[in-house]
Write a structure and sequence with these properties.
By secondary structure, the protein is of the alpha/beta class. About 45% of the residues lie in helices and about 20% in strands. Strands 8, 9, 10, 11, 12, 13 and 14 form a seven-stranded mixed β-sheet that branches. A four-stranded antiparallel β-sheet has the order 7-6-15-17. It binds one RNA strand through strand 9, strand 13, helix 8, helix 11 and helix 18.
Length: about 900
RNA sequence: UGGCUCGUAGCUCAGCGGGAGAGCACCACCUUGACAUGGUGGGGGUCGCUGGUUCAAUCCCAGUCGAGCCAACCA
């Protein structure tokens, strides 16, 4: 009984290339055929190959950055799958704490205004009800981006799709947190952190974007007092934040600064508050900046905090989380920061302590999320002790267990890792993984546990007495577990065994610290193994002039619009060929249109095959199958057939190399050049001539054409999957392949990707073809430059320089006649002088001279112009070669082979020049 | 202040030791039986600048100018 074959519905090939007519259908076929699915176990001798999607935010909509990263990953996955690997591309999304919470809060507020005339806040709903709303939102809108990814042709294993807050992942997060806590690597502490006043949460260093702002720097006088409290002198401090003065607990000077030596250890009186604070000496102070005296506010500045620690200074918090001055601020209590600043400046001015102000540019921390100024503050938060995690993560890259491409990013990685600071992981949000710590209301003890406790493990108080910590974890804490968590960790699953460590991580360089470094640290810590062996970092997509795409600039190009206008394949090809290493990808729609034209070219080449196949009526493939026929007979093929197979091998080599070295531009460019420049421009043209010859040659050519065409479709498939699948399905003699469930599927997706065969390289055929092309191009150039209509046929005579070239012309007479639209090729006797009625076209490779009767064909002035131009060019070439050869040092030191080659060139140029000059002389007689 | 990347045709970029290429744009001719999303031919470049190494430099080295990223403790 024949096995059931999964195959798409047969469709007629459309008249012209229109991706909108088949891309969706092709994708649906793939998805339903089970070809995207990987197997938890490798077949015998099979390797696994896994790439994890960098999980996009559930709130996200597909942008060009996604399109780029997913195109690259899909190309790699499809390639390895076709190479026979058990290839898993894991899809999923990230819960994206702040981003998602803010989206839902905005929606709530809007709804409130519409229905009741005032916004609803999350506090109105309460935590539980609010979270339900977020989950609801996720259910309704969270699939948007995954649907969009399908439009790009992404071959994700959708059966494994994950979410960073699904049940299994939540378990993984808890396990990781509790283990780190038990190992003493997570602690709760009161430290200075970045506080987002608007979002009302702590942020990690990375979420704060330093932004240059115009501001003012003020000089403020602090009185120096003696032991009795008398004002004996003054110190002038410079500050951009006068309102923090309320929390000053010292002023600092450079220990080496002779101006202030006498003041070190003395006390100064804090203006407005009158508090006495010490003058300390610290290296942190730059004597040449400002006045060389710095006010120290440990509670509201990271550097001051450090200085405070070094000098055991008290920490006075004067600003609250609500953005208002605290009781410690004395008379200013309750004022908003900005208001307080104005009041304080006013008061300082009145007291005469404010000496001067000037304009100043400085860097201010802005929240990545809420776009507001971030305030450093003292707060009780959860931290990950990072040093012991960082060490092995650094080593993994140093020893090459993980390699970055482009390699230069390793430097960036090291720089950050060497200076890494403890990671603040608690966020005062509701949406996220709530910290698994409980506080007992009876005994006040804290319990950190994998499962919600049923009673207090210390005093046995019932669960009702246990209150869970209200904070949630930084989103990046969970995404740091992505490669392990999605494969089932902490369970020892078969998937984890098969696919971990994963092969490649492909992402943008902007999240090296946020994500890549954290995955490496977490992965190594929890599994003892690296999470991935290679990190590929792609460039940023910008507009065609290199500007960042942004809504406000109005230069955003929406991938889905591009897909509907040009097709997913054209966009994918564009992104692949532009994904050079390291820098920007400047996307222009002209470029996309160009690659749509390329797809069209492939489309039409296939149509050409069908036309000829039908016309010639060779219904059967060779006995034993086409592939093995080509393999065993190729050395006897015609020159053009051997040539195209030789060039195909060269292309296969480059495509594979590009894909293994993360140089997709090389793979794409070599395919473009081969398919358009060699296969279509030359091979198909030659085939038209072969098809007119006797059956044997016609058949051979049709088969080779069919063979090369399929190889082209296979090679192109990872980059432009839709059009190649659609075309491949139309070919005769295609074969099924097995998916991971053992089902037979008729699909290009699972056809074997070729390895390059060095022995197929045919130098002789390549040389012959290059001669033939030169001859054809010379005659075409003559036509073009003399503005002879393409329709006009004319006669060409030739003088071969030896018997080999004579045979050459005889052999390819028909090809030259056809490709140049020449009426006849006639051999002239050697040594026959050219007349003034003939154009002379001397060639060196092949060594031949064409003579073209000019009568009635060409304006003599035009021909004279052509000759002069040609003479100028050859003269230049000759001069250059002669200059080189005239140097003794060149003859002596350059490789002999090169010297010989240059001498050959000289000879050829001289003889060409002689002929051309002769012709010009006759013409002007 | 450090680190990195990039300056090649009008535009976007390949090439990276033996006299520069592509796509788009431009000009001319052409609706020929795969393709006008096409064909053929053509114009256009002191390969940022200055030195050095070399028989030979767009390519390697040093410096310099310009553009852009990233990390930073200059209040």
């Amino acid at each position: 009984m024949a096995k059931k074959v999964i195959a798409p519905k047969k469709r007629e090939l459309g008249k012209s290339y229109d991706p909108s007519l088949f891309e969706n259908e092709v994708y649906q076929f793939w998805e339903s055929s089970g070809c995207f699915e990987a197997s938890d176990t490798n077949k015998k001798g099979q390797q696994s190959f896994c790439i994890m999607i960098p999980p996009p935010n559930v709130t996200g909509a597909l942008h060009m950055g996604h399109a780029l990263t997913n195109t690259i990953q899909d190309i790699l996955i499809r390639w390895r799958r076709m190479k026979g690997d058990n290839a898993l591309w894991m899809p999923g999304t990230d819960h994206a704490g702040i981003a998602t919470q803010m989206v839902v809060e905005r929606e709530l507020a809007k709804k409130g205004v519409e229905e009741k005339g005032q916004p609803i806040t999350r506090y109105d709903l309460g935590r539980k009800a609010f979270l339900e709303k977020v989950w609801e939102w996720k259910r309704d809108h969270g699939n948007k981006i995954t649907h969009q990814l399908k439009k790009m042709g992404s071959s994700f294993d959708w059966s494994r799709e994950r979410f960073t807050m699904d049940e299994g992942f939540t378990q993984a997060v808890r396990e990781a947190f509790v283990r780190l806590y038990e190992e003493g690597l997570i602690y709760r502490g009161e430290k200075i952190i970045n506080w987002d006043v608007k979002a009302q949460t702590a942020l990690s260093d990375l979420e704060v974007v330093p932004t240059e702002r115009k501001s003012t720097i003020w000089d403020i006088q602090y009185a120096v007092v003696d032991d009795e409290g008398n004002e004996v002198d003054f110190l002038t401090v410079a500050t951009t934040r006068p309102e923090t003065l309320l929390g000053d607990t010292a002023v600092a000077v450079d220990p080496e600064d002779e101006r202030y030596q006498a003041f070190i250890g003395k006390k100064v009186k804090l203006p407005l508050l009158g508090k006495l604070i010490p003058v300390v000496a610290d290296d942190y102070v730059e004597r040449d900046f400002g006045t060389g005296v710095v006010k120290i506010t440990p509670a509201h500045d990271f550097n001051d905090f450090e200085v405070g620690l070094r000098h055991q200074l008290p920490i006075v918090s004067v600003m609250g989380k609500d953005g208002k001055i605290t009781a410690a601020g004395g008379p200013y209590v309750g004022l908003d920061f900005k208001v307080a600043r104005e009041r304080i400046l006013q008061d300082l001015k009145e007291s005469g302590a404010l000496l001067r102000s000037k304009e100043h540019k400085n860097m201010v921390g802005i929240s990545q999320r809420s776009d507001t100024v971030v305030e450093p503050m003292i707060s009780k938060q959860w931290f990950v002790k990072i040093d012991s995690l960082a060490k092995p993560a650094i080593e993994a890259v140093e020893t090459g267990k993980i390699e970055f491409r482009p390699k230069t990013w390793e430097k960036t990685y090291f720089e950050w890792m060497y200076n890494i600071r403890d990671w603040c992981i608690s966020r005062q949000l509701w949406w996220g993984h709530q910290i698994p710590a409980w506080y007992c209301g009876r005994c006040q003890e804290m319990t950190v546990a994998r499962k919600d406790p049923e009673e207090c493990p210390v005093c046995k108080a019932p669960t009702s007495e246990m209150k869970q910590d209200e904070d949630v974890l930084d989103t990046w804490f969970s995404s740091g577990l992505w490669p392990m968590g999605t494969l089932g960790w902490p369970e020892k699953t078969q998937a984890l065994k098969t696919f971990y460590p994963t092969a490649i991580l492909e992402t943008g360089f902007d999240i090296i610290f946020f994500w890549v470094a954290r995955m490496i640290m977490m992965g190594l810590h929890f599994t003892g193994e690296v999470p991935f062996k290679k990190v590929y970092l792609h460039a940023m997509v910008r507009d065609e002039h290199g500007k960042k795409m942004s809504k406000s600039k109005g230069n955003v190009i929406d991938p889905l619009t591009v897909v509907s206008e040009y097709g997913a394949d054209a966009l994918r090809f564009t992104l692949a060929i532009m994904a050079g290493q390291g820098r920007d990808v400047k996307l222009s729609l002209d470029r996309v249109a160009g690659y749509r034209a390329f797809c069209n070219k492939v489309w039409n080449a296939t149509k050409y095959f069908h036309l000829k196949w039908k016309e010639l009526g060779f219904d059967q493939e060779p006995k034993g199958g086409l592939d093995s026929w080509v393999h065993s007979n190729r050395t006897n093929f015609s020159v053009t057939n051997r040539w195209i197979l030789s060039r195909l091998q060269d292309t296969i080599e480059k495509v594979n190399r590009g894909l293994s070295d993360f140089e997709l531009n090389l793979s794409s460019q070599s395919l473009y050049d081969f398919v358009w420049g060699e296969f279509c421009d030359w091979y198909l043209e030659f085939s038209k001539i072969s098809f007119q010859k006797e059956e044997q040659e016609a058949k051979e050519t049709l088969w080779v054409l069919r063979y090369v065409l399929e190889q082209v479709l296979i090679l192109l498939h990872p980059i432009v999957p839709h059009v190649t699948e659609e075309l491949w399905q139309s070919l005769p003699w295609i074969k099924c392949a097995e998916n991971t469930k053992g089902q037979e599927v008729m699909t290009l997706m699972l056809q074997q990707f070729p390895e390059h065969q060095g022995t197929w390289k045919d130098a002789e055929a390549e040389k012959t073809m290059s001669s033939l092309k030169s001859a054809v191009e010379a005659i075409r150039a003559f036509r073009g430059e003399n503005r002879i209509s393409p329709k006009k046929e004319f006669q060409v005579n030739f003088i071969p320089s030896n018997s080999a070239t004579q045979d050459f012309i005889k052999l390819y007479e028909k090809d030259i006649l056809t490709l140049c639209r020449v009426s006849s090729l006639n051999q002239l006797e050697e040594g026959v002088e050219a007349t003034s009625e003939e154009a002379v076209i001397p060639l060196s490779q092949p060594a031949i001279e064409f003579r073209i009767p000019l009568k009635g064909l060409v304006d003599l002035d035009e021909e004279s112009k052509r000759l002069k131009k040609e003479i100028e060019k050859v003269t230049g070439d000759l001069k250059h070669v002669q200059k080189k050869l005239s140097k003794e040092s060149f003859i002596a030191k350059a490789p002999a082979e090169l010297v010989a080659r240059e001498k050959e060139k000289e000879k050829a140029f001289m003889s060409q020049l002689k002929e051309l000059e002769g012709a010009l002389g006759r013409l002007s007689q």
